[in-house]
Design a protein that fits this description.
This protein has one domain: 3-Layer(aba) Sandwich (Rossmann fold). It is built from eight helices and seven strands, in the order H-E-H-E-H-E-H-E-H-E-H-E-H-H-E. It has helices at about 30-35, 65-75, 90-100, 115-130, 155-175, 200-220, 240-245, 270-280; strands spanning about 55-60, 80-85, 105-110, 135-140, 185-190, 230-235, 290. The termini are far apart.
């Protein structure tokens, strides 16, 4: 069994996980995704080494995709973890919570819609109450729907995308800061789209640019308090978000070919970046956007 420390040819990894054309209704779930081409969250491969021992983390969108991989990695590194997810994603959440508990850590599930400001703020209070504190915040939950022409982009879609991706990041961060001691970390999930927006994702890309910029500004503001803020910018990563309207169905088989590695990335390949930014190993890393994108030109 390989793990993240095993030397492998990155161009040949996951060669058996190329998706075909498909569509998932609603927000999409990993349970549905696994019926075609499953994503790898590190369930069978991530090996912890105590890098987050005793830490307490809140991860939004922690039931599937990148958030799920981060939740598994954090638990195996010794952290207790609270995950936030939509009620319809309960089955995915239950599976990740069990993996957290299998790692010997406390797992807390918080179901609700982050477009609701009060719920977003309450996720922090719930985490602090259930875990006994908070020192890692991962703002990861995202909404992505492709729209080919701006004249077809509705006010509702634009508003929901900003509320889920940008406003929720603001609401949660604002609520969390009073609980964060020196040494704590905030990590925002931005995207390659913040730097190289696709024509059919202009509203999503705008939210990711906002989230990225928010991390930069907050890094300067919070660093004197000993709180480090950074961001991770994924490239094309195989998650339920993609076939659930995030990309056109006919684009799925070719997505990722534009990267230097020529393939989709997997959530498990993101987790080590989030572990690094949350751990003391990155004590001098502040306001950084760490690109995990298979090789795509960025500023």
């Amino acid at each position: 069994m390989t793990d993240q420390y095993t030397m492998q040819d990155p161009t040949k990894m996951y060669a058996d996980r190329t998706p075909d054309e498909q569509y998932l209704p609603g927000a999409g779930t990993d349970e549905e995704l696994a019926q075609n081409v499953p994503a790898d969250h590190g369930e069978d491969s991530y090996r912890g080494s105590g890098r987050l021992q005793g830490r307490k983390a809140l991860i939004t969108g922690g039931d599937s995709g990148i958030g799920a991989a981060v939740a598994i990695a954090y638990a195996r590194e010794g952290a207790d973890v609270a995950i936030v997810y939509l009620p319809e994603e309960q089955e995915d959440a239950d599976r990740i919570l069990q993996l957290i508990r299998d790692a010997g850590q406390k797992g807390v599930g918080i179901a609700g819609d982050l477009k609701d400001a009060e719920f977003a703020r309450e996720t922090v209070a719930t985490t602090v109450r259930e875990l006994g504190g908070l020192d890692i915040v991962v703002n990861n939950a995202g909404k992505q729907q492709h729209v080919e022409d701006i004249v077809d982009l509705t006010d509702e879609e634009f508003d929901e995308t900003f509320k889920t991706n940008a406003y929720a990041t603001f609401w949660i961060t604002k609520a969390a800061v009073p609980h964060l001691a020196p040494g704590s970390a905030i990590i925002n999930t931005t995207s390659i789209q913040a730097y190289a927006p696709s024509p059919h994702l202009v509203h999503y890309a705008a939210t990711k640019a906002t989230v990225n910029n928010l991390a930069k500004g907050l890094a300067a503001q919070l660093a004197p308090k000993g709180i480090r803020v950074n961001a991770v910018a994924p490239g094309p990563i195989w998650t339920p978000l993609q076939p659930a309207g995030g990309q056109p169905s006919d684009a799925l088989p070719e997505a990722g070919e534009q990267t230097y590695l020529g393939r989709w990335g997997q959530p498990a390949e993101l987790a080590p970046a989030y572990v690094f930014l949350a751990s003391g190993e990155s004590s001098y890393v502040v306001g950084e956007t760490l690109h995990v994108d298979g090789g795509m030109p960025t500023p």
